[in-house]
Each structure stands twice: as structure tokens, then as C-alpha cells.
Amino acid sequence: MPQLFIAVPSYEVRRADHESAPAAQLDTSGLGPLAPFAEAPNVTDLCINGEAGLWVDAGHGLVRQADWECDEPALRELAVRLIALGGRHIDEASPCVDVRLADGIRVHAVLPPVSSVGTLLSIRLPRAERLTLDALAARGLFGIGDSAVPRLERLRDAVRNRENLLITGAAASGKTTLLAAMLAETPHDERIVVIEDVAELRINHPHVAALESRQANLEGAGRIGLESLLREALRMRPDRLVLGECRGVELRELLAALNTGHDGGAGTLHANSLHDVPARLEALGALAGMSAEAVARQTVSAIDLVLHLERVDGVRRLAQAGRFRLDAHDRLAMEVA
Question: What domains are defined for the chain?
């Protein structure tokens, strides 16, 4: 029988991290032998690279856990069980699957032969607490000392004035966390409709309607994409229309919605820097059959403020804010705000 050896997490947790850990805990019972690692303070990601080992990110980058051992048959069995808990099936015919478990825990699995190093698992853990803008400011997201105050108030003004927002940055830079904190500032008499590929946003607001995309089944039927959900959301009387992440043809639907009176909307986008954002939007627009000029004109009209986040040495910060403009050739460009 395959053997699975587990130990308590071996990485050190600084006192400051422990003190900031949430009182409420995620429901990690479905993670089985990974639960002790997921329950440790401030853990956001677990990554398993076949028999090579387990890496854990507790806010200071991925750290390998020397005491974790798991052979390939047991790891494959774990991946199959986790995917089944999310309501899907993984095998050689469908070797790459992404699901959501209880409390918004996201699991992505890849089986051999697509993976050449054994079964891969990538697990994203949402924060149990719902951070406010003040809490993010206290953690240094907006800068240190008095320099943070103007940025914090600028973000509150953006929500209050119903500016359309785009939050950008690399993976794990804090885009979803900042977006949720800003949406929590929305007046309670407004309805927020959120569309996500996999539900991750946890918004402290009394009126949130959440829609989640659905992948096709084994027969290739039943897919409901983000672009379809955006159209449905427009029929749900949204005061704030939110797209969790722009990653494809749904950009066309989002820009169209934000250009037709849906102020106060928001979304996130993967980008390496503030000045890379125009090229990213042009590439996504091309997938939707939009010309670069069409993307530029609709984006300038639709998006009021861009917030770019960075993560350096495990520290997340608001690096820059910007606005879109048209350049001399009617192409999309960015200026620092």
C-alpha cells in the first residue's frame, strides 16, 4: 500500500504574523493530510510538485517543507479525492482540473503525463478574515507613515465617487484582497454583482450576488463562460458590476457594460507593471475580435483609475496609480495619476 508521511509545518512563524492571524478559521477538513499546513497562520498557498515535495507560502514566499513525504500513488489518490470534493473528475482524459472547495479554497491539479514530474497540486487559501482598507493601511500596503494617508483617502474617494477601477499586478500581489476591501466601502443600499471564474472574492457587504463560471462536462457541453455571465449580470439590476479577473473575450462585455452607465464597477488584471497594462488589454481585446483602436477608445471611456500592486520580498504594496489616455496614434497608453 502507498504510504503517506506527514508532519506539522516546519517553517517558523514570526510573532507579528501570529498576532495578526484571524480568529476564525477556514474549513480545511477536506484537505486531509494538508490540513495542518493550511491551518497555520497566514498561509495563502500550498504547492506540491510530485514526490519532490511540498512548498508553503505564509507571507514570505514559498518555503519547502523538509518533513513532508508522499509517494506518487498516494499523491494521485489525494488529487483525485480533492477534485471529487469540488464536484469534478480528473483522469488521463481530463488531466488538468480546477475546483473550489468549502470556504472558497481553490484547488488546481495536474496528472502525468501532462506533468512530467508526477502529480501537481496548487492550493490557494482565501483569508478567513475580511480585511478593511484601514487594516491594509496598517500592514503597509499604501506606504509607511503619513505618506499612506493620501493614498487611502484617494481610494475611498474612488469608491464614493463611483469611479470604475482596474486593479493590476502579478499573481499573489494582493489584487483580490484590495478589491474586496474597496468594495466593502460601498454604501449598504447598493447591490454588488460579482462574476468570477472561480469564486474568491469575500466582500464584507450585506448585498452581494455572486456568479461563477462553469466548465464544460466530459461531453463538451454545459460551459457557462464569463462573457455569458456578464450579460446575465446586466439583467440583475447591479449598482456595482465586478469582474473578478479579466482574462479573455469577456473584456469586450465588460467594456461595453462600463460604457453604458454602469459606474462604480471594478475588475482585476494580471500585469507585470503599470505600463504593461495597455498591451495586456490590447491582447485580450484581440481575442474578442476588437481592434487596438477600439480597445483604446472604449477603455479610456470606461476605466477611471488603475491601481498597480507589487509583491517584493513577501511584502505587498500599492506601487503606482494611473489613468488611461490615447496616444498620438489613437492607441492605448498609460499615465501615472
Answer: 4-124 (3.30.450.370), 133-336 (3.40.50.300)
